[in-house]
Structure formats: structure tokens, C-alpha cells
Amino acid sequence: MRRFFIDNLQASAGSSVTIGGDESRHMLTVLRMGTGDRLILINGSGTELTAEITSVEDGEVKLTVIGEMPCAAEPIHKVTLFQCLPKAGKMELIIQKCVELGIHAIQPVYSKRCVVKPERSDNKTVRYNRVSHEAAKQCGRAAAPEVFPVMTLSSCDFSAFDLVLVAYEGEEELTLKTVLSEFKEISATGETGIAIVIGPEGGFEQEEVDFVMRNGKNAHSVSLGKRILRTETAGMAMLAMLMYDLEG
Ligand code: SAH
Question: Sorting pLDDT into bands at 50, 70 and 90, what band is 106?
């Protein structure tokens, strides 16, 4: 069934929904849908609604919601990416790819060795959330992960996470694989909240890594392997490894 992302949709099984604008135009003229066709409505809150078109009037599509179910594309474990600000243009790529890979939320972070300075973040935050929304829509997720306004690393709070992983290029011993094998007992019992923290092009200072380790209750600095990855590669690679391990 075709999936449609409808913002601010308040509906549940049995209710009627009217869709106009670009979405209805797309349904009618591009997809040639009509009365009796079924589709999935996604309302951005993690739920999918199955609906049937009951009529088409003046370019608007009227539907009845038949059923509700949680979206299968949403991961069980909620991973938040704390991404230190990369050079211009890279954050959009990071957001897009991490949304595809199953991130739960993204916190842009200003740290000591960031090459770029945070500008007034309002416009950027709006743009970043638009990128997240588009990516969520494209890959079939039920909700667009939120991208928060930029924060300095020292004001980030990691204490509520079940696991905090700082990717540290200076970590020589502990690997992600080892930490995850020890986390298995907890993750097997159900939903967890995990933070992954990625440094900027200039990397982390040891004291920044120490700060995160002190602040998080199950925090580890981990190596992602023998090669130094670019900041935009590190988050995606780490998230893919986490999803493979935790979600199968
Ligand atoms: N300029 C630094 C590298 C920074 S790479 C240097 O030359 O040492 C950017 C960020 O990606 C790092 O801060 C870290 O968070 C992550 N990263 C890249 N490669 C990594 C690796 N092999 N292990 C752990 N983290 C890594």
C-alpha cells in the first residue's frame, strides 16, 4: 500500500479524514487513485493508519480510517546522535543518512575543536528539521527525528541514557563490539536510550571525552576501528553497526 506523510493529522480508527493540496493532487493525478483504494497515512507520531478513499470532491480526497498500528520501520532502541558541528553543508548529509539508518534524534554540538562557529541557529534548526522530515518520508519512517538547536558540549546532559558511546579516535583498547556484547543483557529486555557522540573534523580533546564519561552513567569511549574516519562517516558507520547489532 502507498504511504502518505500528513503533518498534524489527528485521526484514529473509524474517523474521517480529508486531504487536499499537493498530497491529494499527487494521489489523483499522478497515482490515479480513486474511491475504494486503500493507503497508509503517517502522522509523524510513530503510528500508521490504514485508510480507504470513500469519495473525491473538488480535488479533495475523503477517507475513512480502518485501522491503526505501530510503524514497523521504527527501531526499538532510541539512539540520539550528538554530532559536533562539521564544516558547511555536511550536517545535512549526516542528518539525511542517520534518519535512513534509524536515528531517534539529533543534537548538534559545539565543541572546542569545531572549525565552524555556531551562527544564530533558528534558521538552521528549521532547515535541518526539514531535511529530517524529507528523509523520514522517503525511507518509510512514521516520525521525523527531531533535530535540536545547537548546544555546547559542556551543557549537554547524558545522564538519562542507558548507554553513552563517545567515538574517540584516541581510544586504543575498547571497541564498540566489546561494549555492545556487554550491553546485550540490557538491550534484550526491550527499549533503551543510547547516546552516540561524534567529534568534529579537529577531533576531541581528552578532557571533553572525560566530561561525557563523568556525566553519563554507562559511558564508554570506543574505537570504531583502525582507520580515522571523517566526522560525517563516523556517525553513520557507528549507527549502522549499532542497528545491526541491536535490531538485526
Ligand atoms: N582530526 C582527528 C580526527 C577526527 S575524526 C585526528 O586526526 O585524530 C572526527 C571524529 O570521528 C572523531 O572525533 C571521532 O568522534 C570519530 N572517529 C573517526 N575515526 C574514529 C575511530 N577510528 N574510532 C573512534 N572514533 C573515530
Answer: very high
- On whether the CB atoms of residues 200 and 85 are closer than 8 A, the answer is yes
Residue nearest to ligand 1 atom 18, measured at CA: 229
pLDDT of the residue at 6: 84
Q: Indicate whether residue 231 lines ligand 1 (CB < 6 A).
A: yes
Query: pLDDT tens digits for 24-51?
Result: 999 999 999 999 999 999 877 778 899 9
* Cell 563523568 belongs to residue: 214
User: What is the whole-number distance in angstroms between the Cα of residue 153 and the centre of ligand 1?
Assistant: 16
Measured from the Cα of 198, ligand 1's closest atom is 15
Hey, which residues does 83 pair with through a beta bridge? Answer: 108, 198
**Domains of the chain, with CATH numbers?**
2-70 (2.40.240.20), 78-247 (3.40.1280.10)
With contact defined as beta carbons under 8 Å apart, do 219 and 104 qualify? Answer: no
In this predicted model, what pLDDT tens digit does every residue of 145-203 receive, in sequence order? 999 999 999 999 999 999 999 999 999 999 999 999 999 989 988 999 999 999 999 99
Task: Please indicate whether residue 107, judged by its CB atom, sits closer than 6 Å to ligand 1.
Answer: no
Q: Is 44 left (phi over 0), alpha (psi -120 to 50) or beta?
A: left
202 Cβ inside 6 Å of ligand 1: yes
34 lines ligand 1 (CB under 6 A): no
- Is the pTM higher than 0.90? The answer reads no
